[in-house]
Hints:
The complex is a heterodimer of chains A (256) and B (327).
Chain A: H1 2-16, H2 19-46, H3 52-56, H4 60-63, H5 68-89, H6 91-98, H7 102-136, H8 148-173, H9 176-196, H10 198-204, H11 208-212, H12 229-253
Chain B: E1 2-11, E2 14-24, E3 29-33, H1 40-47, E4 55-60, E5 75-78, H2 90-100, H3 106-115, H4 130-142, E6 148-152, H5 160-175, E7 179-184, H6 187-193, E8 196-201, E9 204-210, H7 211-218, E10 221-226, H8 230-239, E11 244-246, E12 252-255, H9 259-268, E13 275-280, H10 283-291, H11 311-316
Parallel strand pairs in B: 3-7, 3-8, 5-6, 6-7
Antiparallel strand pairs in B: 1-2, 1-4, 8-9, 10-12, 10-13, 11-12
Helix pairs in contact in B: 2-3, 3-4
The structure holds adenosine-5'-triphosphate and magnesium ion.
Amino acid sequence: xxxxxxxxxxxxxxxxxxxxxxxxxxxxxxxxxxxxxxxxxxxxxxxxxxxxxxxxxxxxxxxxxxxxxxxxxxxxxxxxxxxxxxxxxxxxxxxxxxxxxxxxxxxxxxxxxxxxxxxxxxxxxxxxxxxxxxxxxxxxxxxxxxxxxxxxxxxxxxxxxxxxxxxxxxxxxxxxxxxxxxxxxxxxxxxxxxxxxxxxxxxxxxxxxxxxxxxxxxxxxxxxxxxxxxxxxxxxxxxxxxxxxxxxxxxxxxxx
Amino acid sequence: xxxxxxxxxxxxxxxxxxxxxxxxxxxxxxxxxxxxxxxxxxxxxxxxxxxxxxxxxxxxxxxxxxxxxxxxxxxxxxxxxxxxxxxxxxxxxxxxxxxxxxxxxxxxxxxxxxxxxxxxxxxxxxxxxxxxxxxxxxxxxxxxxxxxxxxxxxxxxxxxxxxxxxxxxxxxxxxxxxxxxxxxxxxxxxxxxxxxxxxxxxxxxxxxxxxxxxxxxxxxxxxxxxxxxxxxxxxxxxxxxxxxxxxxxxxxxxxxxxxxxxxxxxxxxxxxxxxxxxxxxxxxxxxxxxxxxxxxxxxxxxxxxxxxxxxxxxxxxxxxxxxxxxx
Lengths: 256, 327
Ligand SMILES: Nc1ncnc2c1ncn2[C@@H]1O[C@H](COP(=O)(O)OP(=O)(O)OP(=O)(O)O)[C@@H](O)[C@H]1O
Ligand SMILES: [Mg+2]
């Protein structure tokens, strides 16, 4: 345990002593909150023109998190950079010389980054929610209404999982460029295409982002999914766990 | 002490390191010599557990590297390739390493002081010169005050003063009883610092010997003669039982230390001399000869076909080329 504590401290020092950490996280907060706010403003102005059906199933919570779609990019960048910087700079050789127990190294690095991302995620979730509700005015919901708190906390969890997924994948791929090339289409193109075509929609439902976002929906009609909000998040947890386990095996087997 | 037992590394078809067995002992500087691509850096990475051996084993004071909980206080290494984040200050780079091994923070200042980087502790290595980067790497190696030190071409990028500093540092560390293992592809550099010599070529062990033994068995002495009347000189040498070799540039080379005798003979026979000088083949030549057939990336001069030979045979063979200026 003492050994783990030391490695955790070391990883925390690494994290806070490079600029990329700060900037990607600040970007994640600002983009998510900013874009969400913008969409809330438009939605409020346009609300009266919406169909009655849309108005009846209006999901004020979900709408206030719309910016997450782009904001998660910065969170992904954070996860990718935290790991790829070790490889692109050669720091990995110093790191593994100091901590040759590779499993411990991975767990501590991921744990520290996850802790930080969790805090930033929760700040983003609550900040974005309250800002959005304030902008939605009379169409807003309160945090005490059924399912809303779950969605807000879930938004932070979603961001945390995005960061974790990126870290696991980058432990497999190592290069920042390759990691982005794999992540981008996964989240934006493949996910988008699959979910727009009826036949493949069912597959798309099980992609990490499509599944994970259900945690942010409060009104059941917002997303048509064969699983509930926690089920969706669990699917995303599964993806993340798979990426991390794969990352661990690659780290253990391959030359540094 | 570092023990290598049949250490082997293949990258696909490429045999980077092949069955290396030797021991690096405490209290002396062990030079690890080999031409470019011989496998020095690969061997060192395997010693640190960074690369996985295809076969064989490395023990650090009897233990596997991966079992060391505080490896930095056992073994410190400066690797060939940059091993730090250029955007993390020198201080923080050392801090994260120190924390992971439970080393006191005062060691950071001590290490920076030792390599002369105290003034730039809070600067990011991005702005460092090659030599400063190298010094930071050495500070990291010294951080845990380890019993074993390993340097992969430490003089790379250092100015003459820095080179001398490194030499003295290595000798000093060995005098303190530490194990010092240092790679180079320059024999002349090793001759100045190393007490023991391990030579590899194409991943194979070529020699594992005391430096003094290597010098005495490899430094050929001879006399170089230049004269406007080489024909007469040849006859004179032959009739006095001296064997010579005609060098490419027209001079004659006589084995052994016969300068005085040849001078006397020349005077006696009124033979004009333009040069009469004792010479010593440099260790660089001995090293080149030792690894000649194993050099992977040499400039082709077309003189010798590459042939695989038993190391022992190559080790004992006579030197066909010409000598240098002594060392
Ligand atoms: N990761 C790798 N993948 C494939 N081949 C490699 C790898 N690392 C090294 N090699 C090959 O292994 C051989 C030994 O390389 P190594 O870097 O260990 O030599 P070296 O003795 O350190 O040379 P130098 O004096 O140039 O530093 C070379 O032929 C090199 O091309
Ligand atoms: Mg090398």
